[in-house]
Amino acid sequence: MNEKSEEAAVANSVPKQHSLYRLVTDQARIDDDVLNYKYDGSGTTEDPYVVTWIPDDAGNPMNWTKSTKWTIAMVAAMECFATAFSSSAFSGCIRELVAHLRVSTTLLTAGISLFVLGFALGPLLWAPLSEIYGRQKIFFVTFLAFTVFEAGATADAGVATLLAMRFLAGSFGSSPFTNAGGVIADIFPANERGLAMGIFSLCPSAGPTLGPLVGGFLGQSRGWRWVMGLMTILAGALWIIGSLLVPETYAPLLLRKRAAELSKRTGQVYKTKIDIEKGEISAAKVLSIALVRPWLLLFVEPIVLILSIWLGIVYGTLYLLFGAFPVVFQLERGWSEGVGGLAFLGVALGMVAAIAMGGVWQKQYNAAAAKNGGVAPPEARLPPTIIGGLAIPIAANTVLRSLFGAAFPLFTRDMYNNLGTQWASSVPAFLALSMVPVPIVLYKYGAVIRSKCVYASEAERAMSSLRAKAAQGPPVSTVTRASLETLSSEETSTIAPTDEKSIVEPIKAPATTRQYVAGDASDPQRLLRTTSRAESLGEAAVYEASPYDIDRVNTNASVAGVDLRRIRTNASQR
């Protein structure tokens, strides 16, 4: 092969790309390849064309360039940082607000608790709504509201208005905590997601620790209004940046938009696989399900409850420090608000060290995957938490974690006044010490615990079936490495009707061959499509569900309610 032929082959292997501007403004993303592609079906109401991603689809988030993906990931991470920063920066101006409003410190500390309480309630709305309207629109609306309520907190309208603004700001600002994680899962395949999630996690983790430091220095030098103003400016700037740079990434919505646009252009009927098989569901139904689902998982799934309690203690301890450090370093040692905030740098340093180890742990995770047929068990993610669990005493999930974070600051000052600095500081240490065995037990007995869980056990059986079918498929193609990741979003519904016969609808492995209405066996489009689907089957080994989206494991009951009689029946059979 000559040099020109090699260059042409390389060029042809690189997927065509849309501009970032088009990705942001055009959710259908239809080009000539998409328009002329031969989809399954006849284009009629009875047999509509089935819209899926085409090979090397420029509109598929999994096919975007690394620079585009990382730009989106960093903006999403900074959105989380802004919200987390605002949750704790308020503590840096509490002393000034106590003098200005002439209220108790405990009452103003509720400004932190109510903000974090919003973290618990907001995701119950924003996560399911993002499945209907998309992540892009939800961010645009919620972060705009977050900015407005942050600005409202700067007004001198009394303590009641201030606390109300803080609660609403936390509720609307919490949307990135669920949706940003979903964006990461939308654009990165499993073998790249560990590093992306590690770096992404640094921002929402560093935000609460840097907030008191910045808020303390700014509050003592410029006053409480400047602290509130800084939070407003940060939120507003990131709302503008996110609106301009972050496109829609949720695959089911993108395909639904594409199907509607194709139908409009051609006059024929196009639908997504989800809409054909599951039909549409109202927003009211989705919200009713979403309000029940976290509590259902929390109390029905033992592994969810265990991890939620563990993370609740960790998160509550972090927010306890926001009330404890001012007592220890400002009241007892006489430090200023700014200098007292420097104590949080130790916490931030520990977080940075943990993130820096992300690459090492990702290699360990990949090695575990290689030993288990290409799919690592969930426990392979736990070794870093064991180390973290040992370090904490020394130095659901979202709902319960945020409830702990909201409650701890309220009693911190009274606890330190009554118990003294030494004993009061020992309380979170003892709590954290009691949690040390949790990740170790889960690492060793996680598979047994998951087998006792309704959703987890069904999802494991579905994945085992998928892996078994994948083992019979053709070799994996390096060009279509992300195809199954995309398939998990594209062809598994997050909105499913209740099935009396089964709690979970198993994930359907893609067929290696199909019957097509148009084209014969020599049709290159048909051959390419068939090969692509066969290769995506081989990609089952790298499939991993989104850690932020329970529905990525295709649990029917997680979105459609659950038959509690069946749960009791399953439990009795075990």
TrEMBL record:
Listed InterPro entries: MFS, MFS_dom, MFS_trans_sf
GO cellular component: plasma membrane
A GO term for molecular function: transmembrane transporter activity
Keyword Transport attributed: yes
A Pfam family recorded for this sequence: MFS_1
Ranges of residues in domain Major facilitator superfamily (MFS) profile: 72-574
Keywords: Cell membrane, Membrane, Transmembrane, Transmembrane helix, Transport
Residue ranges of the TM segments: 70-94, 106-126, 138-165, 195-218, 224-246, 295-322, 342-361, 423-443
Annotated compartments: Cell membrane
Protein topology in the membrane: Multi-pass membrane protein
Superkingdom, taxonomy of origin: Eukaryota
Family per record: Belongs to the major facilitator superfamily. DHA1 family. Polyamines/proton antiporter (TC 2.A.1.2.16) subfamily.
Protein name as catalogued: Major facilitator superfamily (MFS) profile domain-containing protein
Species name: Lithohypha guttulata
Lineage: Eukaryota, Fungi, Dikarya, Ascomycota, Pezizomycotina
